[in-house]
Every structure is written in C-alpha cells, then in structure tokens.
C-alpha cells in the first residue's frame, strides 16, 4: 500500500445509505468525508427497487464528494442477509521456488486452491478468510511469507452468497456510475472495528441491530464461525410508536430519536412532548414514560430473538459476551435492557474517529479498516478532481466482466 491512499466504503442499509471516505497515511486511517442519504428501495436489508436504490446511492456519494471536494469512482460495498453461508475448506500446494522460500505467489496459489469448493449453481464466493496456515505440518501460522518449506496449506472460511443478491447489489452500484473495487461481508468488517483480539478468540456475539434487520455474527478462535440475519430492527419500534400514538411514521421516527428510551425505569415522567394524531388536527401530550411503555416490549423481543438465534446456531454455551452496534442501539437504556435480557456481559461498540462516533457507522468504518489491513495493494488511489465519473460507468470498456471478477476477488487477506 502506498503512503497515501483513499478508501471509500458504501453501506447500503434499510434506513440510510452511507458513503464513508477514509484516507490511509502510512497505515493510519483518517475519516475525511461522510455522506448519508435516506434509503429508498430497501426492505428488511434486501433490495426491492433498483432505481430507488440507485438514487439513494447517488445522493449519499454526492454528499460525501461535496464534503471532501473529490470525485469518487471506486467503492467497497458491504453485503449481508440471510442468504450468506459459511463453510470451511482446505488448500494445499507445493512451494515452487528453488530456495523453498514462501512468497506471494505461493500464498496466492494456496488461497485459490482453498476456493475450489462444490457450490450450487445459484451461489457464489464472496470472501475467503484464512484461519491459519500450515508449513510442512506446523500449525498456527498467521503469515507464512519468508518461511522455508516444501508444502504450504491453509485452513479457510469460505463466505458464499446468493448470485441474485450479489448481482442486484452490483447492478445498483454500477447504475450509480461507480466501480466496485470489492464486496465485503458486513459482519467481517464490523468485527474488524468492533471486536478486540481477545473477544474474537474467546467467543463473542456481534449483533448489528439496524432499521430493517438484525445481523448476528459469532466469532470464535480468532475468526467468524456463524452468521445469521433476523428480519427485525428499529423500524419495528417506529411502527409500534406510530400505532401506539396514532401518528405518522415519519413523526414517530423523529419522536423515537428525540425522546425514545428503551427502559421504562430510565424514562422521565416530566419529559413531555406533543403529537399530531392521524385523522385529527388536535395535538395530544405524552410523556417519555408513555413512550418507553411502547418501546421496551419490542426491544425485549429483539434481544430475546437474538439470544434464541445464538442458541439455535449451537453457541449458547460457548459465548462469553455480546457486542452491540447499529443505529438502533444508540437509544438510551438499550445497554441496561440488553444486559438484563441476554444475561451476559454486553457493551456497545462505537467507532473512535471524529465525525463518525456513532454505532450506525461501525460497518462503514470497519470496511475501511478491513481493506487497509487485509487487502494490501488493492486499495484505490486518491481520485483526481478532474476525473469524470463517466469514466467508470457500467458501459465503459475499462470495466469488463465485473461479475467474473467478483468470483476471484479478495484472495489476499493477510
């Protein structure tokens, strides 16, 4: 990686599309631009309207571009959903160099060997994550470069997804006149930012509670071992408030953000607000306690479903704690409620960068960290202001075979 690189991450969520621009100076990341736009065309984390999604992506990217004053052409895109699958695989190669020193070519070949898995025709490899390397039977090697050996092996986790979901996501980004530098599993990116090395080793659940869905990723022995997506999130809380207070959904969302509290015990009776009721010009006054009586049962249900899903995945007794992230967990009282419902140690992960100190930005910032650490040599050079975004349009001959390239992308995660 050169001393000064620009990495742009694109987090396409149910409520917001976020474009984050990170600058890498000698290995140190600075967040220099953030663009956010209301997400249209996404339901429960899945794309349901291509054109609306494209417009949301354009709005977010334009916002980020205006903040920094550069032209964005290449982006790393996050993907998640219930179609994601994990499986382990093994790769073996013989060292090709005469002096038996392991080089980049050998690592590339062994990672390609690990990608040889039997997949149904409707599935595709998204990421390949090495767990460990073995040199002549010696285990536990994280980086075999420069070692001497005859036989190189790798144990890796193969992340696969549904072709239709991958291609629809890629289509939206392409139609927004952007070039996909890579697709990254959101849970891997969030884990890079949110979890410590010890948390990844000991067994931790990373729960990303967004607007339309909650993604659970279980980390153990230093890597991701299971992932699942539940179709519940902050939108359900907003819907409950809308029904309970008989008001419009957009007003219910504003009330939730300004006065919402996840625990009745933490709510203030003297905190009052007025609501325009549907079918009437009259305003009615409510207290924060009234609001908490609506919010707490739904948040309890979300944490109950998360715990139930961890048990279904077979990790109920192997988990030593939970880490929460996502826009929904910013609500006051969420941490205390989660500790009570999950009956475990719980903390909320917040990115430690100026301008993005909010759990909603964990995935986007995590993608930038992930790229800078595991994808050396594949980062995007700093875009020039004079570069026309038309140069990276889907019809341009400079971008042949995007979907073919996605199949062989991300082979270097060291």
Automatic annotation (TrEMBL):
The keyword Phosphoprotein does not apply. Residues 7-194 form the SHS2 domain. It is found in: Cell membrane. InterPro entries: ATPase_NBD, Cell_div_FtsA, FtsA/MreB, SHS2_FtsA. Residues 382-401 are annotated as: Disordered. Gene3D superfamilies: 3.30.1490.110, 3.30.420.40. One of its GO terms (biological process) is FtsZ-dependent cytokinesis. Cell division protein that is involved in the assembly of the Z ring. May serve as a membrane anchor for the Z ring. This is Cell division protein FtsA. The gene is ftsA.
């Amino acid at each position: 990686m050169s001393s000064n690189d620009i990495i742009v991450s694109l987090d396409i969520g149910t409520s917001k599309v976020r474009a984050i621009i990170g600058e890498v100076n000698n290995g140190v990341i600075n967040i220099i631009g953030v663009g956010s736009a209301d997400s249209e065309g996404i339901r429960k984390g899945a794309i349901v309207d291509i054109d609306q999604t494209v417009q949301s992506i354009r709005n977010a990217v334009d916002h980020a571009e205006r903040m920094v004053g550069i032209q964005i052409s290449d982006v790393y895109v996050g993907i998640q959903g219930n179609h994601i699958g994990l499986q382990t695989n093994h790769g073996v190669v013989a060292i090709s160099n005469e002096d038996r020193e392991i080089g980049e070519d050998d690592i590339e070949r062994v990672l390609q060997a690990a990608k040889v898995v039997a997949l149904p025709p409707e599935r595709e490899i998204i990421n390949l994550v090495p767990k460990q390397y073995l040199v002549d039977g010696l285990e536990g090697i994280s980086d075999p470069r420069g070692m001497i050996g005859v036989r190189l092996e790798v144990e890796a986790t193969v992340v696969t997804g549904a072709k239709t979901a991958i291609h629809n996501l890629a289509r939206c980004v392409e139609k927004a006149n952007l070039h996909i530098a890579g697709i990254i599993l959101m849970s891997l990116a969030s884990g890079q930012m949110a979890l410590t090395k010890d948390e990844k080793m000991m067994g931790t659940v990373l729960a990303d509670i967004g607007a339309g869905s909650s993604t659970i990723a279980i980390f153990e022995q230093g890597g991701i071992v299971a992932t699942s997506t539940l179709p519940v999130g902050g939108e359900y809380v907003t819907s409950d408030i809308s029904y309970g207070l008989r008001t419009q959904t957009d007003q219910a969302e504003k009330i939730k953000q300004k006065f919402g509290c996840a625990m009745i015990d933490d709510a203030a009776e003297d905190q009052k607000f007025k609501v325009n009721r549907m079918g009437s010009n009259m305003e009615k006054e409510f207290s924060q306690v009234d609001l908490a009586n609506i919010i707490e049962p739904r948040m309890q249900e979300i944490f109950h479903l998360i715990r139930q899903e961890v048990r279904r995945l077979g990790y109920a007794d192997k988990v030593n704690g939970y880490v929460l992230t996502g826009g929904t967990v910013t609500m006051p009282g969420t941490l205390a409620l989660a500790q009570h419902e999950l009956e475990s140690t719980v903390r909320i992960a917040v990115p430690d960068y100026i301008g993005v100190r909010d759990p909603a930005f964990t995935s986007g910032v995590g993608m930038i960290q992930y790229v800078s650490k595991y994808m050396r040599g594949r980062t995007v050079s700093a875009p020039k202001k004079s570069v026309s975004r038309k140069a990276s349009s889907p019809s341009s001959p400079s971008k042949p075979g995007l979907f073919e390239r996605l199949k062989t992308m991300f082979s270097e995660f060291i």
